[in-house]
Protein 1
Amino acid sequence: MTAGSEERSVSSEERSAAQAEIGRMRHRIDEIDEQIVGLLAERTAAVRILTEHKTDEDAVRSTDRVRQVLARVEMLAERHDMPPQIARETYRSLIDQLTTMQLERLAQRRGTPA
Ligand SMILES: O=C(O)C(=O)C[C@]1(C(=O)O)C=C[C@H](O)C=C1
């Protein structure tokens, strides 16, 4: 007996209905991505403005603030019934990139390499 041989066969109608649903959901995902990237661009612009008021690396890294943001997005994810670790890891990666961006800007203002 081969793996999966007990599964009932799927009709071609079911297969094409499944394909249609996948196509609809991918279209929806593309629309959501457009909103997400737009919001991320706004968030990045806000971080760029705030960066201009930071004068040292500790201020750029703001570890207490990072902890606060990560805890908050986990809480928000739970409220929206999504796995909190997805929100946490997504923001961890976002904040890492934004920290690098800020360190580069700080170095540029100081006239030294990051
Ligand atoms: O709040 C700050 O000071 C930021 O620089 C923004 C931000 C964030 O993306 O939320 C980015 C880097 C860390 O320093 C902390 C938080």
Protein 2
Amino acid sequence: MTIKKDASSGAGGALQADLFGSVGPPGLAYAENIISEAEERTLIARICDARLTPFRFQRWEGKRLTRSFGWTYDFETNRFAPGDPIPGWIEPLRARAARFAGLETDALAQLLLIEYGVGAGIGWHRDRPVFDHVIGISLGARAVMRFRRRKGTRFERAEAALAPRSAYHLSGEARNAWEHSIAAMNEPRWSVTFRSLS
Ligand SMILES: O=C(O)CCC(=O)C(=O)O
Ligand SMILES: [Fe+2]
């Protein structure tokens, strides 16, 4: 069962089982209400102003809009390079994400903003190995992050419900051994992902 920790109950607060009774892999940490509804609205407005562009891979164009800061990974050329500086408006959230994951704020060297319009999702993948820890904050509609790991000829599967204003942290097995994906959304969702470098 996915264990979900409510940030408002403080560190070491009561653990409660996920309402969906879903199963998350080891290395997945999850906390709800890491930002207020007012902060969520402000962040969504900032992301909408941040000139995101459709994610492209060869001749395929994804329905989600993305923009990265700090470091960029070009999926066409496999090139990993310094990018635009992480904007100041995201700093308070970056500090909170770092605290949630038990990392130094400066360790979160990459920022990825994503807008999932209706019909947009993200296919099965593991994040590039140039990155280490992955911390994601969800805004807008609730989503389900699905996990799978090959076991012989079959897949072992798990999933975690991502509430708006929640954060997840992928490390260890959830980060390295499992793939994750998000099914196409019926309502818009935005995500803010911070990653440390390997
Ligand atoms: O939107 C999310 O929370 C997940 C994004 C993701 O998996 C990725 O960009 O690698
Ligand atoms: Fe990912």
Protein 3
Amino acid sequence: MTQPHPVIQIKNLFKKLRSQEKFLIRHERTILSNITLAVSRGKVLGIIGLNGAGKTTLVKHILGLTRQSSGTVSIAGIPADQPEARKHLGYLPENPYYYDHLTPEELLSFGLCHQFLSRSEKKERIVSCLRAVGMAHAARKRLRTFSKGMVQRTGLALAMVSDPDILILDEPMSGLDPFGRKMVADLMLDLKQKGKTILFCSHILNDVERMADRIVILHQGRIAKEIRKEEMAGLSGELRVLVSGKLPPSEGASIEALQNGHSLVRCLPETLPDLLHLCRREGLEVLEIKSPESSLEAVFSQVIASTSTYACAEMAG
Ligand SMILES: Nc1ncnc2c1ncn2[C@@H]1O[C@H](COP(=O)(O)OP(=O)(O)OP(=O)(O)O)[C@@H](O)[C@H]1O
């Protein structure tokens, strides 16, 4: 089967920044190191990483807003620094800030100024985008009167208004209440169903796990791990069960004898009834059942622990 042509293609991308000269010695910091990444049409790629891992810098390269030290970035086959590449992109920045005397309606019509649409088509597009993000009721209010979450929602509408094929969303859930988060998640899945390609960065691992087809863990400017959806399903989501004594071996459970005489059992939720039965039979008490961590959270922690002596990523380079 032939692979679909990637709409975002990054090859061997390096970004180095020159620090101030010290004693005539020039220092360089590597912000991104040998990033190679491709996203196919209609797919959702989630990027996660610690603060300072390089996520926003990577996004800036995709948007053609900064120049790479080496390597290539292309959007729909066009180098990312060419203006034509941007026609394919809708962008929500990490901390959206817009002229706050504007209304969402005015802001979105600015986003459509290069589109050949009739007045009524523009109006229809603006209304439907504001409705999609739950901001239709505030279409004519000044942005300066908005909460952070309302600005975030308006920013998302702006990213969508020109109907781009590719959406680049830097922390789309930031500042949103639980309803807002669900709304954005549903919206992203809807956009995906419409064939849009989405690349987003987030610190909310549950959302990333739910929405992404593929996840990239960026650490200290490098791709530390890529996880495909199929692999995500297979990640362990084990329960941890604390039992008041020693247990004999049991199928489907890993048992660790603790120094205080208790046992810590790890098992999948479907084998819990067998384990409870075993505890009853052995006359042991179940002291605690801890639900699984987000499986992505477990993998993320593992990757970070194994790829670094965790010094703050900002010190890297
Ligand atoms: N203009 C700049 N000048 C100097 N250093 C910079 C600049 N922009 C980014 N950096 C450094 O590059 C590294 C990556 O920053 P970036 O903003 O891409 O991280 P991030 O993963 O988006 O972090 P966060 O999760 O906190 O948003 C950081 O160490 C940051 O200090």
Protein 4
Amino acid sequence: MILTAALSRTQAGKDVGIVNRIGEWGISLTDSVEDALEQGQPDVWIDFTTPEQVKRNVELAIDAGVRPVVGTSGLTEEEIKQLDERCREQGIGGIIAPNFALGAVLMMVFASKAAKYLPDVEVIEMHHDQKLDAPSGTAMKTAELISREREEKKQGHPEEKETLEGARGGYRDGFRIHSVRLPGLVAHQEVLFGGPGQLLTLRHDSMNRESFMPGVKLAVEEVMNRTGLIYGLENVMDL
Ligand SMILES: NC(=O)C1=CN([C@@H]2O[C@H](COP(=O)(O)OP(=O)(O)OC[C@H]3O[C@@H](n4cnc5c(N)ncnc54)[C@H](OP(=O)(O)O)[C@@H]3O)[C@@H](O)[C@H]2O)C=CC1
Ligand SMILES: O=C(O)C1=N[C@H](C(=O)O)C[C@H](O)C1
């Protein structure tokens, strides 16, 4: 794979390798998506930007015939549908993955299987304190996969009341998602299943950002041979 361009507002004009402390690469960072898409005829647009920026970036990439591989969280279901249609119109593939760590994908898939037999579940996601969105994209995708397998159920005591607002976390499809933000954390998630006399805990930890790279590489290879936008790396893994 060859890096053709790289995007940044704050470091625009500087060499991407120097900024990342891996020696000079001869590629200047740009703050223009249009310029980045024109440099070196790229096949793939890799996006880890912000929830505000990602939609525009991906639309411009697709319109230029460049396949999106997106890690940025925050796209709505409706936006993903629109982007899928745009990819199909252009006859190109794309992947949006809420989490590129293969272990995290396995955790989500295992959680959906467990929910069939242990429908009482809560999700606790833990991230670094610079994260902009809550809950994480991973937690939302976990909830989506769990809901597909879990019988409909409203958990907990029907008369439960919060004496401190938010104490029971966010509510989705009958169960709770809790978001923890602390310096020192990278990206972590526990899925807790409770049953009479038993507790099953599935946990995944990203210790650093290297954890996402094998999944990004897999996605970049896959989009070259597909048409339409795939949501979730589990859809291209042999599970
Ligand atoms: N799916 C996955 O596996 C993963 C997903 N993520 C997601 O990726 C996103 C980014 O997270 P993270 O890496 O922590 O955030 P960072 O703030 O570390 O990185 C965001 C990057 O995008 C650049 N950027 C943002 N907006 C613009 C813009 N308008 N023009 C040019 N460059 C821009 C920033 O550069 P500058 O500030 O210089 O503009 C920066 O380099 C989040 O949504 C996060 O949830 C993160 C890790 C893994
Ligand atoms: O912001 C992050 O760091 C991460 N974001 C993604 C998410 O929202 O789930 C993936 C991973 O958890 C890291």
